[in-house]
Amino acid sequence: MAVPPDVVEKIEAGYKKLQEAPECKSLLKKYFTKEVMDQCKGLKTKLGANLLDVIQSGVANLDSGVGVYAPDAESYTLFKPLFDPIIQVDYHNGFGPNQKQPQTDLGEGKTQLLPDLDPEGKFINSTRVRCGRSLQGYPFNPCLTKENYTEMQDKVKGVFDQLKSDPELGGTYYPLEGMTKEVQTQLIKDHFLFKEGDRFLQAANACRYWPTGRGIYHNDKKANLTKFLFNFT
Question: Which residues are annotated as a binding site for ATP?
């Protein structure tokens, strides 16, 4: 299916806006040349993402540092004339498209190798490990539908349900939609609850249908916390 003419017009208007904005110093403006635009403006991924989905936040926010969001996994290859130089030259400083990430190592059986950073307990109150994952077969947030959010939440809740009998990981999933004031107050007090995204994410259509499909899971000891469908760059 071709990219609709009105979307192509918005892409071209976005290019013009960037070029006419001397105050804009984003990586989008730096690498979004007319040649790149002409090469990519008519392309669409299998999940329906187009170039406008990639650039719209950077066009709306001229003070963006980067200015692009990948709306699905295929976008990195389909729109590589734009993504590759941003990633390789500036964002990841030399990490090219033919290079590979290191082999996955989740540290199983190696925790004893980690030194105690605060053996006397004077400085560290808590630690946080942050990671992000996407679900295969779905686009990223800029192109997710309301139905996608609901389906993904149901799938992840099914995984959480399997953890209930685990003494360490068993806990509760709290969907934001329909959350009572009492639960909300307690989660805010525990510094667990998050809020809707910023203007850069909003301009990328990454906050649509809020709070549908969003929630948090933590174990009963409140030592392990999962925020679901919030971070999606």
Answer: 126-130, 191
Consecutive H or E run containing 227 = strand 225-228
- Three-state SS across 91-160? HCCCCCCCCCCCCCCCCCCCHHHCCCCCCCCCCCCCCCCCCCCCCCCCCCHHHCCHHHHHHHHHHHHHHH
Binding site members: 126-130, 191
Domains and CATH numbers, the chain: 5-90 (1.10.135.10), 144-228 (3.30.590.10)
* Residue-wise pLDDT tens digits, 143-167: 999 999 999 999 999 999 998 888 8
Burial environment of residue 97 by CB neighbours within 10 A (0 to 12, 13 to 18, 19 or more): exposed
For residue range 7-54, what is the model confidence (pLDDT) as tens digits?
999 999 999 999 999 999 999 999 999 999 999 999 999 999 999 999
